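Lab meeting prep.
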Amino acid sequence: MPTALITGATAGLGAAFARRLAADGFTLVLVARDEHRLAESAQQLKLRYGGAVETLPADLSTEDGLTAVESRIRDGVDLLVNNAGFGHPEGFLRTPVADELRMLKLHCEAVLRLTLAALPGMKSRGRGGVINVASVAGFFTRGTYSASKAWVINFSESAAAEVGHPRVKVMALCPGFVRTEFHDRAGMDTAGIPGFLWLKADNVVAAAMRDLALGRVVSIPDPRYKAIVAVGKFVPRNLAAQVSARIGR
């Protein structure tokens, strides 16, 4: 049985990945901060799909949490989904620097270290995959969040080019607005976001798995957002930043 390790696995895209991969026959390793919620998620997945589910409580914005998950990945995983992340309700000038640094540790350092923990074993076995969850925001300028997701995209492209094995794949997944707990937990007001821009988590995961199988390095899992990113390349960056800020407000 192949093994998949998913960070941020108890809600949103992480939970959707867990459902899809359990249905596909993967043994799961679920990583999240909330031990009680992890146990509940694991029990539900076992009852529904019948596969093995391991839980690993860890806060990836801490050194202890990162070290624990690195160690488990080096024991062997076939698919790593770096999904854990969060957003801030305010711009970076109104956000405590400690909170910004915690975001960078989770979005950048954790993605770097866990990917590097996974790839040597995958290369030696001759198979494996890493999905780093970025965002369409990474193609635009919108504070620390979009900057960190731009890093995830660039890093994933670089890692995919460097890994040099056709059966070891690294991909950045770049969804737009997804119906999850993400915005509520960040205290963000989403009332002004048009309904047609919202995506379903299960659909995003289905597109991601398809694109990974096809060997795509960057996955934008919806035609609407593909068009937005394509148009954005021709819009002056200062204008795109102003539009992004208006949407954010």
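Slide two material, second protein:
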Amino acid sequence: MRGRPAVLGIVLAGGEGKRLMPLTADRAKPAVVFGGAYRLVDFVLSSLVNGDILRICVLTQYKSHSLDRHVSTTWRMSSLLGNYVTPVPAQQRLGPRWYLGSADAILQSLNLVHDEQPDYIAVFGADHVYRMDPRQMLDQHIESGAGVTVAGIRVPRTDAASFGVITPASDGTRVERFLEKPTDPPGLAGAPHQVFASMGNYIFTTKVLVDALQRDAEDDNSVHDMGGSLLPMLTERGLAQLYDFDTNHVPGETPRDHGYWRDVGTLDAYYEAHLDLISDQPTFNLDNRRWPLYTHPGQLPPAKFCAGGIASASIVSPGCVIRGQVTRSVLSPGVTVAEGAVVQGSVLHDNVRVGRGAVVRGAVLDKNVDVPPGATIGVNPQRDAELYTVSKSGVIALGKGQHVPG
């Protein structure tokens, strides 16, 4: 926007997502379907674009074809205004090696920064579910004069080992310590059972980021990671500030979904986040017309219910044909549920077919899975454990096109 500082968005989307197998067996984690019609990468891109960050590079690496295609075909910006969202595959610009870590990914892509010459760089992760207005974080960053501002959210101290943990100084904003996945971090003053977890979203002053990347590249002991290397370095130099995500207010938000952010890095977290979508007053509301979520709409007819088919407390995408019974589930485009079939508490990706009289309960089925007539998933735990991936909480997951015996 004219009159505002120049900001380049860099989205880190090269993650393998091993904990989300088998959904990531054939694609990068940011390309995994979420909420019926979306990909995980759509959530960060929607926030950046809604927040007037309109020049964005998506750094990809692991099994990136599906992700590259989605970004290229969906995220078309105005070339007249010089805006773009572009996938940037690993290019081996610094030698015959792939990215060593998230910091190295940006180091190897500094040509993007040199070409754009932004005042600030927003480095955001690509695999979380949330809404955020990045302008508010940018304004704090500029006002504070920090070298880097890191977005943090309060989580239980018992969950600290899954995140980078930010210890704020007595002023509440300067970062005193940054610990990557600590097992026993200090609690917050006034809230000893909580810590600030890094959301993986950072805003850098350009010169500070470039300098830090070059210093990190020269350190043979570094893991070349944003949370494991750059943030501790900049914290020690007194250049890091905390942005409290709870202070971020998005137009059109509700009291229930204010401050919603989920790391869906495991099957259980992925499944539970879907349950947040389907209540009458959802914890995370997909329908916010003032801060929309964007994706490719597809060319499919509206969902159709016939032969007594019903769906309750569910999300049913275009192209679905429901002849059976669907409850508390999320259905992606093109799903068919035949007569007498029952789908309960499940997440079905594109073009899943549930045959006549089949039962699917508490499951996540990737695209093109064909459940034969009379087959059951989620009915016999012992059989399910022998045939499929089962999470710690008992969520059953089938990979893309996985065979289901009749």
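Talking points for slide two:
The chain has two domains: 7-268, 298-398.
Residues 216 and 224 are 7 Å apart (CA to CA).
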